[in-house]
Write a structure and sequence with these properties.
Elements: E1 2-6, E2 33-34, E3 38-42, E4 47-51, E5 54-63, H1 65-80, E6 93-94, E7 96-101, E8 108-115, E9 132-137, E10 140-146, H2 156-167, E11 173-178, H3 182-185, E12 191-195, H4 211-219
Parallel strand pairs: 1-7, 1-12, 2-6
Antiparallel strand pairs: 1-11, 3-4, 4-10, 5-8, 5-9, 7-8, 7-11, 10-12
């Protein structure tokens, strides 16, 4: 699964336990570890999720979305294959994250990221490629829209706009997951995501409502 994010509003759902210590979710696909999350609530159109603090290995690519995903993927794949200061082979995880500035044109700067496995979250080896770097994200609440097919240059804007009313504005950046090179990145449906704010209530399924309120709203 690949995630597409909008920049200033960093999307990342928080995973409660991490990865290998829990029963592996079905959306992990073939990978041994993946980024899980706490489901706050869901509706027919979206889910409100909470993801935990996390470390990722990343690279920036200026191109179209589809071309940037491919270039970024192979840079990061070299990193986990040993192009790092320890020469360590690092297991592939899911999802792959893509962040983009929605305010830019068709060709823009994308940041592609691989989630680091639990064993490397604390002190990952530094990359040997100058264009690859390590970054860390805080825990963040997120609105997620899942859909069939692939996330592409043609449809990513449509899925992001569908979540805008929940966000309450037009962000300068956004988040969305899509699947690329599925045999390597793991299974799961593509998802489009926008970061939310805990305590901000928008709709019956909301990051601003308690779990009980969300449940009662969904059953009314």
């Amino acid at each position: 699964m690949m995630l597409l994010l909008l920049a200033p509003l960093l999307l990342l759902a928080l995973a409660r336990g991490v990865w290998g210590e829990r029963e592996k979710p079905t959306f992990c696909g073939e990978v041994t570890e993946c980024f899980t999350f706490d489901l706050i609530c869901n509706s027919s159109d979206y889910e409100a999720r909470l993801y935990p603090p996390s470390a990722w290995v990343s690279t920036r690519v200026n191109n179209t979305y589809t071309a940037a995903k491919t270039t970024g993927f192979w840079r990061l794949f070299r990193y986990i294959q040993g192009w790092n200061q320890l020469g360590a082979k690092i297991p592939m995880t899911s999802p792959v994250l893509t962040r983009v500035d929605q305010a830019a044109g068709e060709t823009q700067e994308f940041t592609i990221s691989f989630l680091l496995p639990a064993a490397w979250q604390g002190d990952p080896p530094q990359p040997t490629q100058p264009v690859v770097f390590i970054e860390r994200f805080p825990a963040l609440p997120t609105y997620v829209r899942s859909f069939g097919g692939w996330l592409t240059d043609a449809n990513r804007g449509t899925h992001i706009r569908a979540l805008m009313p929940l966000w309450g504005g037009t962000p300068g950046t956004s988040t969305a997951p899509g699947t690329t090179l599925p045999a390597t990145t793991g299974g799961g449906r593509p998802v489009c995501c926008l970061p939310g704010v805990l305590g901000q209530s928008r709709g019956q399924c909301s990051l601003g409502r308690s779990s009980r309120e969300n449940h009662e709203g969904a059953t009314q």
